[in-house]
Specification:
Rossmann fold; 12 helices; 311 residues; homodimer; DNA-binding; four-stranded parallel β-sheet
DNA sequence: TTGTATGCGTTATCAT
DNA sequence: ATGATAACGCATACAA
């Protein structure tokens, strides 16, 4: 018990005793067992995070800052990669909760009833990122993808574009952006000349292949809206390889403000969303709750369209 | 005890009993507590991984496949990001070992004596990646960075280049590649006209800035060797922006075979190392040991130079 | 300031 | 095939 106090609440131990204990700890190479500590105290000081993948900056950036923020407060992050297909999600959540994390980060806010039941029974703080439902499971930090799609439409319409094509991944968030875009374009009477669904996560190569598949249908002056900067970079690369000038002949708009967009030639018009901030805020919400506070249930992070050279 | 058997060794339970137990599990929403299980069995079924960052594909790719491989076998991965400065590494390892992981993945094979003592006392399988020392702490999967540097030198010398510049990050592995390169070039009597140390992890922007800083010193025909494809992509971008043709005027060579190199214009000559394979093999080594086997202590993954358009 | 008793929720082991 | 008992290594609560 005295050893436990030396480690966790050194103030409550006489300095003479504490230094004897520390000497013994050093001599023995003692490493406290947090598994036992977690069982006893019912606090594991561990946070679980479930994201589809870390192979895309869309998730590696928030997870990086999420982990950084939590580890500064003595928490560890258990990372689980769910993929995009949704199969096995319930088993994954079950397995994660079996570790008794003190808190949980989830991607997206739509879950099956079975998963919701698991989450509620777990009775731990949960933060969902990358989405902006009005009714989060617990807490949320994200934004409205449909709104972004509409904003992109408005931007391109204001720039004078009247013909459009879409290269978008099929996951829920990319789909929401696509629908927001298409709805706004339809309301303006503008046609979608071609549309192509890409895999999630989509890479540069998917953008190249996607553009190649539709380019014959795209007259001069078409704006190609892409679901990520990687896709957009691929689309630009392919368009130029096929002799179509960007933006004079084809315009391209991305999403995510990844570093590649700034170095692209021409530089990439895109939507900036602060991924690292999302991860940090998610961590802060969990920490606040674990400290007994009541952080805002719902934080909408700003986005803004970055007009650059490609559209 | 019967519940435990239904969950872990269902074969040893009568089917009638098992189904009653399963019904109760379902009715109660019971989720087993792996913290208690781990304490009792002294197996946490958790593997810890320590890498500098996941913001670079250099590490996110291996970690992705490492995690995938382990989770298929019922293991969870606890991810810790160490940064590159080395400060706090001992505290980090200590904190990680306090969770009693069944195995550990580390980046690199050089550790302080204090850390080595911690690792040995932990008495768990350890696999080090991205390095190729002859004397791994336990197991290792990686390659010899100095050898890669020398191979790049040979390739460029064979292509006829006689003037060189280096844009390399300062971390131990990038440094090893740089030294291997410079040694070989020195042996061939070729000068390094300019050299620039970049931050770790280096991004596209670092490549741009780095090249801009040295470009005045680079005559036509210089080969610029970069410590990653991101740096190389930045260097190409900057060179072209400054009116220097690639590869006719300046040649550029990268490292890592990231996707961006294929889409780059001109396409990027680089060194291909199979990051996902490294992560998978690391996971397989740990799994083999945990299953009582004796996998090879040391696996060297192949690399090869990919001659493309930029050099 | 330090020490003692107890319980956290499992699994290993032995008994039936 | 199932049950009983005793750890596992800490932290909580209380006592001294």
């Amino acid at each position: 018990m005295t050893v436990s106090r030396v480690i966790n609440t050194p103030d409550r131990v006489a300095e003479a005793t504490a230094s004897r204990v520390r000497a013994a700890i050093e001599a023995l190479g003692y490493v406290p067992n947090l598994v036992a500590g977690g069982l006893s105290s019912r606090r594991t000081r561990m946070i679980a995070a479930i994201v589809p993948t870390i192979a895309s900056p869309m998730f590696s950036a928030p997870i990086q800052s999420f982990t950084d923020t939590l580890s500064r407060q003595g928490y560890h992050v258990m990372l689980s990669l769910s993929g995009y297909d949704g199969a096995g999600d319930e088993a994954l959540v079950h397995a994660v909760l079996a570790r008794r994390p003190d808190g949980l980060l989830l991607t997206g806010a739509r879950h099956s009833p079975d998963i919701l039941r698991l989450l509620r029974n777990a009775a731990i703080p949960i933060v969902e990122i990358w989405d902006a439902t009005e009714t989060p499971t617990d807490m949320l930090v994200g934004f409205d993808h449909a709104e972004i799609g509409a904003a992109v439409a408005d931007y391109l319409l204001a720039k004078g574009f009247r013909a459009f094509a879409v290269l978008a991944a099929g996951d829920p968030r990319a789909t929401a952006r696509r629908l927001g875009l298409c709805e706004r374009l339809a309301a303006s009477g503008c046609p979608i000349l071609a549309e192509r669904t890409l895999p999630s996560p989509s890479l540069i190569g998917d953008g190249r292949l996607g553009l190649r598949a539709i380019i014959a249908d795209l007259p001069r002056g078409t704006a190609v809206v892409c679901s990520s900067d990687l896709v957009a970079f691929g689309a630009i690369t392919e368009a130029r390889a096929l002799g179509r000038a960007v933006p004079e002949d084809l315009a391209v708009c991305g999403f995510g403000d990844f570093e590649i967009g700034m170095a692209s030639e021409p530089s990439l018009t895109t939507v900036s969303v602060d991924g690292p901030a999302m991860g940090r805020i998610a961590a802060e919400k969990l920490l606040a709750r674990l400290a007994g506070g009541t952080p805002a249930r719902r934080t909408i992070v700003p986005f803004r369209i970055l007009p650059r050279a490609s559209a």
